Amino acid sequence: SQTIHQWPATLVQPVGSPLSLECTVEGTSNPNLYWYRQAAGRGLQLLFYSVGIGQISSEVPQNLSASRPQDRQFILSSKKLLLSDSGFYLCASPTSGGGAGELFFGEGSRLTVL
Amino acid sequence: SQQGEEDPQALSIQEGENATMNCSYKTSINNLQWYRQNSGRGLVHLILIRSNEREKHSGRLRVTLDTSKKSSSLLITASRAADTASYFCATGKGGSEKLVFGKGTKLTVNP
User: Fold this and answer.
1) What is the b/e burial string over A25-48, where b = at least 16 CB atoms within 10 angstroms of the residue's CB?
2) Which of A36, B64, B102, B107 could form a disulfide with A90 if both were Cys (CB 3.0 to 4.6 A apart)?
3) C-beta separation of B88 from B101 below 8 A
4) Is the pLDDT of residue B96 over 70?
5) Is the pLDDT of residue B95 over 50?
6) What is the longest distance spanned by two Cα atoms in chain A?
7) Alpha-carbon distance B54 to B64, whole Å?
8) How far apart are CA B9 and CA B29, in angstroms?
9) Does A83 score more than 70 pLDDT?
């Protein structure tokens, strides 16, 4: 069955520190992966999407970057965190067998920048 | 800017009552989807309605779509305390899988 593993689940980091959030996908042959951020009261914002290894598209200019080192691995990074980077980060992939654009989400990583 | 906007932002009802949430969007769509998010968890896909459909049912869920008004509604009948969650509508950009989500409706069902 389709699963998305995200870690760490929670993270508290000081301003200016680096960040690495990892997402690993299993049980799907669709290569597309997505990073969304959910800030308080702002809904979900698409940050990055990837259609394959080394292929990353950024949706909004920001302090974050993403990488796809392996087919089933998607990493969200920052060299220096800002307070505004706090939020709930969700990795998603198209639902296995969906075909119409439904997304399957991981359980998220909650980042608090102090 | 957000494609989908849910209304109301928050809704509190008693168990057994029906809950209706609305979603408005701005551009043409291929389909509209509804998702549910329990507090602190990831989103779960509930139901998808295509642009050529007007109504769709799944268990206690009923979704309508009015493309002329660019709006959709999600009805949860005979609500339960376990339905307490945030509900989001999402639309695709030109039919791609890059979904754009609204801010959601936070539903509280009181036992």
Assistant:
1) beebebbbbbbbbbeeeebbbbbb
2) A36
3) yes
4) no
5) no
6) 41
7) 5
8) 23
9) yes
Q: Is B96 exposed, middle or buried (0-12, 13-18, 19+ CB in 10 A)?
A: exposed
Contact (CB<8Å) B50/A94: no
Q: How far apart are CA B98 and CA B91, in angstroms?
A: 8
Give the burial class of B2: count Cβ atoms within 10 A of its Cβ; 0-12 exposed, 13-18 middle, 19 or more buried.
middle
Going along A1-114, which residue ranges are E strands? 3-7, 10-13, 19-26, 33-38, 44-52, 55-58, 65-70, 73-78, 87-94, 103-105, 109-113
The closest CB to that of B48, out of A32, A34, A100, belongs to A100
Q: Is the pLDDT of residue B1 over 60?
A: no
User: What's the residue count for chain B?
Assistant: 111
Contact status, residue B24 vs residue B71, Cβ threshold 8 Å: yes
Which residue in A56, A44, A74 sits closest to B91, CA to CA?
A44
Q: Do B101 and A103 touch (CB under 8 A)?
A: no
User: Could you tell me which chain B residue has the CA closest to the CA of A91?
Assistant: B42
